[in-house]
Each structure stands twice: as structure tokens, then as C-alpha cells.
TrEMBL record:
It comes from the Bacteria. InterPro entries: DUF4389 (IPR025498). Keywords: Membrane, Transmembrane, Transmembrane helix. Pfam families: DUF4389. This is DUF4389 domain-containing protein. It comes from Streptomyces endophyticus. The chain crosses the membrane at residues 43-66, 133-151, 157-175.
Length: 217
């Protein structure tokens, strides 16, 4: 019994990228109609953050090439950008999974219903850093463009699911659980690809759709 408890206590997600969310079946019937306006300040901030993320990723590429290490401050910033984008996408038209307004922060928000984190790597491959962000990740980017519409995360299959869920919520007051689980799985795949393409991990994203609120362990 003790061994089993130890295994449970020390369990870790199968991926260094963790994307999770809390299902709320009773989101507002009408609020989604104006979330494009409510989320506008976040969209403006994210546009600037993504520019900064592109620049810091370029700096990180050279740092990894010469030292095998991703500078921690740059890593935390880029994880924070992904984290912020996921919270905004979850609130708005990436998922419409919550009516709680996302916080304006790059840091973790454990009490918010959408969470994302990337385990910090102590060492990264010098050889992979030259090819993984454009060559190795290319098949995954093509898939992600179909799943979530690329970096905007509001199109593709996920965008269609969100639209159908919005209609269902409007008429029934309930977010269909099957649509929700699939949508989260699509964004989880996209987050893994974004972290790999952003040089934050050497773990290649699996060609696998892990659905539901929680990461597989």
C-alpha cells in the first residue's frame, strides 16, 4: 500500500508542458456575445508580448547554442506569454470555458480555471536548437493550424467546436462536455507544439490527442 501511495504522490505528467482547465457546465448564455469587446485589452497586450517573445526566443537560441542553457528569465517570460494567451483563449473564443475575467499577469494564477506551465530544462541540445524550430516542428505546425487555426488559437477545429458550444449554451444553458473535452485536447496539443517550437523543451510533441481537463499521468 505504501509503495502505491508513493507512486501516486510522485506521479508526473507525461509531457513537460502542462495545460489544464476546470469544466464549468453553466457558463453564461449571453456573455460570449460581447467577450470580443471585453477581451480587447488582453488582445492588445498579447500582440506586444508576442513580439517580445519572438525577440527573446532568438536570444535564447544563441544562448542554447553556446551554453546549452535557456536563460531562466527569458524562459519564464516566454512561458508567461503562453500562459497569458491560454487564459485569454479559454475565456474568449478559443474555448469559451469560463466567465471569469483573466488576470493581467505573466505569472501563474493557480485559482484561475485555465492553467499552463512548462518544466524548466537544465540542459538543451545544441544540435536540435538549429533545426527543431523550423524543420522538425513543421509537421506539427501544419497539424496545429488545422486544430486551432495557428497562433491565434481561435480557428480550425477548435474554433468550430467553440461556435457549436456557444450555440448550445445559448439555447440550453449547458456547455456540452464532449465538445469541451475535445477542445481542451486540441489546445493541449497546440501548447506542446508551441513550447517545442519556442525552444523550451527537447521533448518532441506526441502525435496524440489527450482530451479532458487534466494531463495524463
Amino acid at each position: 500500500m505504501a509503495d502505491n501511495e508513493t507512486l501516486v504522490a510522485t506521479a508526473r505528467p507525461t509531457s513537460p508542458v502542462t495545460l489544464e482547465a476546470d469544466y464549468d457546465p453553466a457558463v453564461s448564455r449571453w456573455l460570449w456575445l460581447v467577450k470580443w469587446l471585453l477581451a480587447l485589452p488582453h488582445y492588445l497586450v498579447l500582440a506586444l508580448l508576442f513580439v517580445g517573445s519572438a525577440l527573446t526566443t532568438l536570444v535564447a537560441l544563441f544562448a542554447i547554442l553556446f551554453t546549452t542553457r535557456y536563460p531562466r528569465l527569458l524562459f519564464d517570460f516566454n512561458v508567461g506569454v503562453l500562459r497569458w494567451a491560454w487564459r485569454v483563449g479559454y475565456y474568449s473564443y478559443g474555448t469559451l470555458g469560463t466567465d471569469r475575467y483573466p488576470p493581467f499577469t505573466l505569472g501563474p494564477a493557480p485559482d484561475y480555471p485555465a492553467r499552463l506551465d512548462v518544466a524548466y530544462p537544465e540542459r538543451l541540445s545544441r544540435g536540435l536548437v538549429l533545426v527543431k524550430w523550423w524543420l522538425l516542428v513543421l509537421p506539427q505546425w501544419l497539424i496545429v493550424s488545422l486544430l486551432v487555426g495557428g497562433s491565434g488559437s481561435t480557428g480550425g477545429v477548435a474554433g468550430l467546436l467553440t461556435f457549436y458550444a456557444a450555440v448550445a449554451v445559448l439555447f440550453t444553458g449547458t456547455y456540452p462536455r464532449g465538445m469541451y473535452d475535445l477542445n481542451i485536447g486540441l489546445h493541449r496539443w497546440a501548447a506542446r507544439v508551441a513550447a517545442y517550437g519556442g525552444l523550451m523543451t527537447d521533448t518532441y510533441p506526441p502525435f496524440r490527442l489527450d482530451q479532458g481537463e487534466r494531463e495524463p499521468y
